[in-house]
Amino acid sequence: MPKGSLIAQLKVTDTDQYAVYGAAATKLLEHYGGRALVRPDTALVVEGNPRPRTIIFEFDSIARAKAFWGSEEYVQAKALRANAAEADFILIECVE
């Protein structure tokens, strides 16, 4: 089964509140087997206008990534992010 990825592009608007969200989301990502693949502070934009922060997480399967995203615990964690960042998220199946 192909791995799954969660790609996030963010602009943090409230660093203190985002830190609260980040702590909650990190615990859930670890619980669902999510691993960060990139370091967002090293991104070099070479074309276009993406948000300032891009993060890519890998999961053992797209099903596991979807389970994380749809979990009740993450729904609650997302509420912590509501006024702390502008964000776009993509769940995508990886190529083997």
Q: What would your notes on this structure say?
A:
Helix 1 runs antiparallel to helix 3. The protein is 38% helix and 28% strand. It is built from three helices and four strands. The longest helix has 17 residues, at 15-31.
Order of helices and strands: EHEEHHE
- Count helical runs: 3
What is the radius of gyration? Answer: 13 Å
End-to-end C-alpha gap: 9 Å
Give the helix/strand class. Answer: alpha+beta
The strand count comes to 4
Average pLDDT works out at 94
Rough outline: globular
Strand content of the residues, in percent? Answer: 25-35%
Strand order of the largest sheet: 2-3-1-4
Major sheet description = 4 strands, antiparallel
Helix proportion range? 25-40%
Poorly predicted spans: none
Summarize the entry for a quick read.
This protein is of the alpha+beta class and 96 residues long.
Keywords:
96 residues; four-stranded antiparallel beta sheet; alpha+beta; 28% strand
SSE inventory with pairings:
Layout: E1 4-12, H1 15-31, E2 35-36, E3 53-59, H2 62-70, H3 72-81, E4 85-93
Antiparallel strand pairs: 1-3, 1-4, 2-3
Helix pairs in contact: 1-3
